Amino acid sequence: MLKKELTFALDYALNKGFQIHPDAFEFLENVDSKKLEKIIKDIVRDKTKQKQFQINQNDLENYFGIKEDKDLKVEYKVLFDPSLKITSGEGISGYNSLFVSRFNKLKRIISDRPESRLLKSISAVKTAKTDDDLYIGGLVTARISERNITRLILEDPTGSFEGIIFDNELQKTADLLLSDQFVMARLTLGKNSGFIIKDLILPDIPDQASNRSDSEVFAVFLSDLHVGSKYFMEEEFSDFVEWLSSPDPVARKIRFILIGGDVVDGVGIYPNQDKELVCQTIEEQLKKLEDLISKIPNHVKIFVMPGNHDPGRRALPQPAIPKKYNSSLWDRENVIMVGNPAVVSLNGVKVLMFHGQSIDDIVKTTPGLSYDSPTDVMKNLLRARHLSPIYGSQTPIAPEMEDLMVVEDIPDIFHVGHVHRAQLDMYKGILLINSGSWQHQTPFQASVGMTPNPGIALMVNLKTFQVLHQNYNSKLDNILQS
Ligand code: D5M
Ligand code: FE
Ligand code: ZN
């Protein structure tokens, strides 16, 4: 049966002598019913003036201003996707290869620095007899703070090394080191044959010019929808999707949407999750996601990356959400399924996407970092040039032959989710975005004192890097930290 607002609108037009084309009829069925009366009256008035008495889809697209602007350049490319590279080495030998690969990749990255000419292997340094500075590079196996000193243990493929840090400032730098991250150390031989660490040098991001889009196209950054959870903000998310088809001048320039993981809430992710789900199967959850994003105009490309709630392999790097759970989502022309992490180029702007599971382990072990400021954690990841260094804690890491979590390619935008707090920052010319969430605070989050700021859509002008947002959370007024 037709909604009464739609019946009213159709009767109104018919009484004025209009015909309604079936395409227009279908379009009107999807329009917010509260707005129907005004729309039909406006169009009837305009077309009567033009002495035209048929209403077709074109009229409605003109009215809403959603006719695609063909002049906007839209080019995208998936530059890195682990989905096809995953090999899964087995057990101990797998992890060995992973760490050797990590060491080698990061040594290559740090070799751009002048000091690295002097870099020696740990075994060579151990037998050195010199008063000159020595340089080694290795992965952090331990940092131990005792009274006034910090002991640091590093490992490279030739052996293990222990050095002492006396300097207070350098101890603070050492406190920020993550387990298993790569660092270069400048040392001198101490009087009693031990090594004193004089400086710690991270791979970090060099100064660089970032890429910009030639045309003024916007990309929207979203994550942590948690579709299927009873806390998913379905109404607010639908309002946002509807806004994408509105005459708003920014909405009309949106050509990309990037979803940074936890697209669905999943099944069996935490104890008694079923009591907090409205869709009890992965298939149902993904179908609902598909229904929601099917209302996004076709000229908007949607990149979907998995997080720790999504189906597929849980260990990092994660392949894209497997097609078997929803093949029609995979087959949609404007949907691109990628793994976690992934690098995509949008009109030449490089975006590194990572769900952000490693943040849990990092905030636990690093003084001064917290869930309240995810972009500070993101800066640490960039300095380490690694997305998930800590091995053996909460974040599962697969024994890959190659370490695919090293940040080899320097992005223009670094997009992370997971912590459910939208936040923006800049680091060495890289725009840092934590894209928040579309899930209300869950009982678990309340129990650990986590306050999310959900319901904000962040969007970036890829030409100017200006960031705008749409807020769908009526409870938030001062929402964005940056
Ligand atoms: O994670 C949502 C947020 O909740 C994210 O900031 C991590 C945090 N979280 C999730 N599980 C835990 C545990 N077990 N301890 C502490 N903090 C946690 P999401 O991936 O959406 O569930
Ligand atoms: Fe999440
Ligand atoms: Zn998550």
Tally the helices.
13
Low-confidence stretches: none
Report mean pLDDT, rounded to a whole number: 92
Number of strands: 20
The distinct ligands, each listed once, are:
2'-deoxyadenosine-5'-monophosphate, fe (iii) ion, zinc ion
Gross morphology is elongated
CATH architecture of the largest domain: 4-Layer Sandwich
User: Reading side by side through the largest sheet, how are the strands ordered?
Assistant: 3-14-15-16-18-17
The radius of gyration over CA amounts to: 27 Å
The tally of domains stands at 3
Q: Brief description of this entry?
A:
The chain has 482 residues and is an alpha/beta fold. The protein contains 13 helices and 20 strands. The protein is elongated and about 100 Å long.
List keywords for this structure.
single chain, 482 residues, alpha/beta, Purple Acid Phosphatase, chain A, domain 2, OB fold (Dihydrolipoamide Acetyltransferase, E2P), 3 domains, six-stranded mixed sheet, 13 helices, 20 strands, elongated, binds 2'-deoxyadenosine-5'-monophosphate, binds fe (iii) ion, binds zinc ion
